[in-house]
Amino acid sequence: MRPKNIDEVVGQQHLVGAGKIIRRMVDARLLSSMILYGPPGTGKTSIASAIAGSTKYAFRMLNAATDSKKELEVVAEEAKMSGTVILLLDEIHRLTKPKQDFLLPHLESGRIILIGATTENPYIAINPAIRSRTQIFEVKPLTEDDIKKAIKRALSDKVNGLGMMNVDVAPEAMNHLCRATNGDLRSALNALELAVKSTPPENESKKINISLPIIEECLQHKALVQDKDGDAHYNVISAFQKSIRGSDADAALHYLARLLASGDLISVNRRLLTIAYEDIGLANPSAAARTVAAVTAAEKIGLPEARIPLSVAVIDLCLSPKSNSAIKAIDDALADIDHGGYGDVPAHLKDAHYQGAKTLGHGVDYQYPHDYPHDWVPQQYLPDPIKNKSYYQPKDNGRYEAALKDQYARLKKMQKGQK
C-alpha cells in the first residue's frame, strides 16, 4: 500500500500539498537532499518512495545502523553509471563518520539525492556536516481522517490491498483502529491485515466481519466503550480536563484510569501538559514543572508503571490554585494581530546593529534598562496604535501570581509617571 507517486501520499499536506515545498521540488524536478523526522509509521519512507515514483529516478533503501559502507559504494556506482539515485537512509542519526565522509562528495555533486529518515530530533542527533547539506522537514502524526482514508483505500485496492476479500468493518471497530494507533498508519494497516486474515468468513455470505473486539485483540488496545459515533474518546478526555479544572481529584483519577485502561498514554501525557499551563498556569508554575517531570517519567517507564507518576501529577494539578490568565493574555494578543491591531515597531526599539541605522533613526533614543536604578526605566515598547493596551489580566489565586499582580500594577503606574 506504499504510495507510488506524490498524489497518493496520505496526510503531510504541509509538505506534499499543492504549492508546498516537496510538491514544488517534484514538479520542478529540482530535488535537494532532505531529512524527514517524526514518529514511526507517519510516512517518511512513503514520501521518499513517492518522490522517486513521481520523478522516475532510481530508488534505493538502506539503514544507517545496519548497512555497511560497501552498500553505499554500490549505490554510488549506480549513480555514476545511470544518473541520479534517490537514497532513503533510515535511522540516519546512526550514520558513522566513515559512511558520512563517503557520502558527502556524492551529495555535493547531486548524483545521490539523500532522504534521511529519523525519529530523533535532527538538530541534536545528526552531524552538522550532513545537516548543513540537507533541508529538514518535520513529518507529523496522521489524523484519524488520514488513517481512515488509507484504511478504506486498503480495503478497496484489489492489487495491493484487501479488495479481493469481502470485508466489512464495523463503525466502532473502524473508529478504534483509526484512534488507538495514535497517528501510526503502519500499525493501523498491520492490525487491519491481521484482523482480516485471521477472521474466518461467515458460512453463507462469505463475508469477513471485523468487530470491535477483533480490532482490540489485534491492536492490543481496549476501547473505552462501544463507540459507534466516535465521540466517547473525546468525551472522556474532555471530562478529564474539566475535572482537573474543577479541582475534583476523584473524578480526574477516574477518567485517568479509563484512558490508561485503553492504553492511551499519549493522549494523557499531551492533555496533562496542556492542563498544567492552560488551567493552573501562573497560579502555581512549579506544578507545571512537576507535571513535565511526571510526563517524562511516564514516557520512559511506560505502562503499567506510568500510572504512578501520572496519578501524582493529576492529584497535584487538581488541588493546585488555578489561573487561566496566561492563555487569555496570549489569545487576546493574537486576536489583535488577526484583526490588524498592531502598528510599526517604535523607532527606538528597532535593530541598530547595521550601518545606516542611525540615519534612519533606528535605536537612537533607546534607553538601556540596566543603566538605570533597579534595572528599569520608563519608555514605550508597544506600537503607537496600541500603546496603552493591557493583555495580561492577573489573578491572585496563588501566592506566585498574587506577587506578579502587584508587580504588574506597580510597573504600569510607573510607566504612566504615577507613584
Number of DSSP helices? 18
Please report the total strand number as a whole number.
7
User: What is the residue-averaged pLDDT?
Assistant: 90
Q: What distance separates the N and C termini?
A: 71 Å
Please tell me the CATH architecture of the largest domain by its name.
3-Layer(aba) Sandwich
Order of helices and strands: HHEHEHEHEHHEHEHHEHHHHHHHH
CATH homology superfamily of the largest domain: P-loop containing nucleotide triphosphate hydrolases
CATH class of the largest domain: Alpha Beta
Shape: globular
Your description of this structure?
By secondary structure, this protein is an alpha/beta fold. It folds into four domains: 6-138, P-loop containing nucleotide triphosphate hydrolases (Rossmann fold); 144-219, Helicase, Ruva Protein, domain 3 (Orthogonal Bundle); 247-318, Up-down Bundle (Zinc Finger, Delta Prime, domain 3); 336-415, DNA polymerase III clamp loader subunits, C-terminal domain (post-AAA+ oligomerization domain-like). It has 18 helices and seven strands. The protein has a five-stranded parallel sheet, sandwiched between helices. It has a two-stranded parallel sheet with strand order 6-7. β2 (58-63), α4 (69-82) and β3 (85-90) form a beta-alpha-beta unit.
